[in-house]
Structures are given as C-alpha cells and as structure tokens.
Specification:
Layout (H helix, E strand, L loop, with lengths): L2 H7 L4 E3 L8 E6 L2 E6 L5 H19 L5 H6 L12 E11 L6 H9 L5 E6 L4 E7 L7 H15 L2 E11 L4 H15 L6 E3 H16 L1 H9 L4 H12 L4 H8 L3 H15 L6 H10 L3
Parallel strand pairs: 7-8
Antiparallel strand pairs: 1-3, 2-3, 4-6, 4-7, 5-6
Helix pairs in contact: 9-10, 9-12, 10-11
C-alpha cells in the first residue's frame, strides 16, 4: 500500500516529517516520512493490518518473485540464469518522485523501451536494474536519453542511468556487476542523465591516482584553470583536438578559439593543439 492508496481508505491521512504517535494520532513510517492517522475508532487489529500492508508493499516492490537473474547477480545463487548469450545490465535510480509514483507502473513503461529484455526489477525503493540481451537494434545513449526525458515528464520524476557493457554469461558476471554498481554510485552525480563506461572510464580510473600524486597536484596548482580555460579544454577534448568542431560547440569563431588557445599556452606552457598536452590538461581538470 502506498500513500495514495491509504488516502482512499482513510481520507484524514497526512504525511508528516516526524513520529506524531500519541493518544490522538498513530503514525507509520513511510519512506523518509510518516503517515499520520487519527487513532479513534481503530482497533489494534486494524492498526496491525495497516502496518502489515505498508510493510508488504515495500517487500513486494523491492524484491519481486524469485528470479534466477536477481539471485545470480546479487550472489544469492551460483546457478547461471542462461547457458549462453551476451547481456548488458542497465542500472537506474529514481532520484526525485512524488507520492503518486508507483514502481510497477513505471517499470512496465520503462521496459517498453527495449526489445530483448530478460528481466527488470527494483533492488531498493529507488534503485533497480534491467537486463537486455544483445541484438541488432540497440538504442544508443543519446537516443535513450531523449526517450527517457519524455518518460520522466510523463511520470513527474527524475532518473539517472548507467548503461553497462555486454558480457557473456559466466560465473564472474556478479563481480563485474559489483564494479559497475560502484561506478554508477560514484559517477551518477557528475555525468549526464544517461552514461556508460566509455564516458567515465578516464575520470573514474585516474581520479584517485591524480589525487595521490604530489607531482600532479603541484602542476594543477601552478596551472591557470579559470572557468574560461576549463571550458576551452573540455571543448577541445570532446572534439579530440578539432578546432572547427570545438569552436562550433562553444558558439565562437574559429579565430577566437585560436586566440584563446594561444593565451592558454602563454599562461601554462601547454599547447591544446598537441594531443599529449591536451590529455594532461584534461586530467588536471577532472578533480
């Protein structure tokens, strides 16, 4: 039972930020809030049933019917869910929602975006995964992002996704999934709404080493990285050194970009026309 369903049964129900249980009211924990009801004319049995219904909702939504995939990926079982094939795990998280949001309805709509779905389920109240088998008509990240924005608008929510690599069915897949979970958790607030390994690999796997390097930290402190230069470096990196493409992305003339590159060279001694220097500058702006 969710709050909307509770209101249908008990119109006096309200959400509060604290436990208001006492002689007049009884409160039940609900997500990060409390559902408050009037205590009068409610028997102990009825209150116990309400508590059970709220708990049952959470249990059934976060851990659906027994699943070979779910048990395998969460290392509850060593049995392979399939004997062959390549699959990717798409992680999702609902980062903003209101009290009308229903997991099952949204999940059914989300599944319609994909063709070869093995399974999709929530792991927690807000996080879940979808497993997709490899096929010839896959959505790329940009296509998926456009469709997801529309889906978010329809459900009045905000979501974020990590698109995993395709992997063969092997005993090591749960360990790979664990690492993909770690990547998602550490990068989800730093990336676009939909991202994958190729987007974050350099940042994710070098960030800690850069922080621990006295040389890199000293070089970073000695190099001028104001907002304009950071924007310049990022544009040049994304265009892989193509000045025309970078100028277009910044909405400036090619000559203006050339001038900014020269100014940065004078200030730092590093040339963004040189791919090695460009890579070094990009690494220095990551943290």
């Amino acid at each position: 039972m969710n709050f909307k369903e509770m209101k249908l049964l008990y119109p006096e129900a309200v959400l509060t930020h604290s436990n208001t249980s006492g002689e007049k009211y009884v409160a039940f924990p609900y997500k990060d809030k409390w559902i408050q009801l009037e205590r009068k004319q409610k028997s102990d049995t009825e209150l116990a049933l309400i508590q059970y219904a709220l708990t049952q909702k959470k249990t059934s939504s976060t851990r659906s019917a027994a699943s070979k995939w779910q048990s395998f990926l969460l290392e509850e079982s060593f049995a392979l869910p399939r004997n062959e094939g390549s699959y990717r795990i798409i992680q999702f998280e609902i980062v903003k929602m209101d009290d009308t949001f229903t997991q099952s309805v949204w999940l059914d709509a989300f599944k319609q975006l994909f063709l070869n779905i093995e399974e999709a389920f929530f792991i927690t109240e807000t996080k879940g995964i979808l497993i997709e088998e490899k096929h010839d008509h896959l959505l790329n990240n940009e296509e998926m992002a456009g469709i997801i924005r529309t889906l978010d608008d329809d459900f009045s929510i905000k979501t974020v996704y990590y698109i995993g690599q395709f992997w063969p069915i092997e005993a090591t897949l749960p360990q790979i999934f664990k690492e993909e979970q770690s990547i998602f958790d550490t990068q989800k607030n730093k990336q676009a709404q939909v991202f994958g390994l190729s987007t974050i690999a350099l940042h994710h796997y070098t960030a800690d080493a850069i922080k621990k390097s006295p040389l890199m930290q000293k070089l970073k402190s000695e190099t001028v990285f104001d907002a304009e230069f950071k924007e310049l470096i990022l544009a040049m990196w994304k265009s892989q050194g193509n000045i025309s493409v970078a100028a277009k992305s910044l909405y400036i003339h090619r000559n203006t970009l050339q001038y900014r590159i020269d100014r940065f060279h004078q200030a730092s001694g590093l040339s963004l026309r040189n791919m090695d220097d460009l890579l070094l500058c990009y690494l220095l702006t990551l943290n």
